[in-house]
Amino acid sequence: MDVSFFIKKYFILPFNEGTGYNIVNTTTYAVLLAIITYLLYYLLKKQKFKFNEELFFDFILIGVFGGTFHVLSDYGILKRNLITVSPGIWLTISIPSFMSLIFLKICFPKNYRKIFRITLVVSTFLCLFLMRVRYIQAIAQIICFSVILIAPLLYLVKKIKILNEKTSLYVLALQVLDGTASFISIQYYGYFEQHVIGNLFISLFGPFGMVIMKILFIIPILIFLENEEKKDNSAFFIKMIIGVLGAAPAMRDSIRLIMGV
After folding, report:
1. What is the pLDDT tens value at each position of the chain, 261 positions in all?
2. Phi and psi dihedrals of 190, rounded to 5?
3. For the chain, how many helices (H) and strands (E)?
4. How far apart are CA 240 and CA 261, in angstroms?
């Protein structure tokens, strides 16, 4: 198998045909994510950012905006190409966003966070205004299922002290919201899952396997990270990344479903 055939089979064809991910490109993208995460951690640390709850919310807002912006290509407003769909679009969003955050901190050290957050919120709403709601009932479904699934889960893990930090609970909620939106989309609207592990859980548990997968994977990871945070702030940074990886697809899946694309 030559290199060009390998790239075409595992990377180009899945993109052109919209067939989703396979074990090869999933592994490749995971390695690239790890490298980019390390570089971002190094860059923010060099710029003397504090890895705390404030920065956590900056990250989440980037994820919310990114997930919303992604829907513009699903909707047809943006032409579908390598930089407007996954995984390329996450570089399209993350690089300018984090560079802007750093630039604002340098230029406006007292107000950079307020400027950054207002810009992201306004940009997110501008994206939403460009689209029309098709499935109003999907809004109710997402809210109802989220309340039914997420509220008792958060109460339980907090009550028995499985997780102790607010940011951990936020990350868990965002990840389960992503799984919930995927479950509703697949169960009631005929969507399909593109990721390898997600499809494995769906084959075992049906569409609700998306929620089960999130709970089984995320809680142990967060427990580990909470313990590691006492030794190294890089653990909190990884938690922020996991939060973004929950917020962005949760927003994209929810909005895409509501808009009917």
Report:
1. 577 878 778 777 777 776 778 888 888 888 999 999 999 999 999 999 999 999 999 999 999 999 999 999 999 999 888 788 888 888 899 999 999 999 999 999 999 999 999 999 999 999 999 999 999 999 999 999 999 999 999 999 998 889 989 999 999 999 999 999 999 999 999 888 888 899 999 999 999 999 999 999 999 999 999 999 877 889 999 999 999 999 999 999 999 999 998
2. 75, 15
3. 11, 0
4. 29
Instruction: Enter the tokens of residue 162.
Output: 């499985």
Cβ–Cβ < 8 Å for 20, 194: yes
C-alpha count within 13 angstroms, C-beta hemisphere, residue 112: 18
- Backbone torsions φ then ψ of 113, nearest 5 degrees: -70, -40
What are the two backbone dihedrals, phi and then psi, of residue 47, each rounded to the nearest 5 degrees? -85, 10
Question: Do residues 149 and 187 make contact, with C-beta atoms less than 8 angstroms apart?
Answer: no
Place of tokens 């593109």: 194
Residues ≥6 apart with Cβ < 8 Å to 17: none
Which tokens sit at 10?
């595992």
- Could you give the angle at the alpha carbon of 228 between the alpha carbons of 51 and 211, nearest 5°? 90
Angle made by CA atoms 47, 50, 52, in degrees to the nearest 5: 150
Task: Quote the CA–CA distance of 247 and 175 in Å, as a whole number.
Answer: 7
Which residues have a Cβ under 8 Å from the Cβ of 118 and sit 6 or more positions away? none
Buried b (16+ CB within 10 A) or exposed e, 146-167: beebbeebbeebbeeeebebeb
- Rounded-to-integer distance, Cα 232 and Cα 218, Å: 20
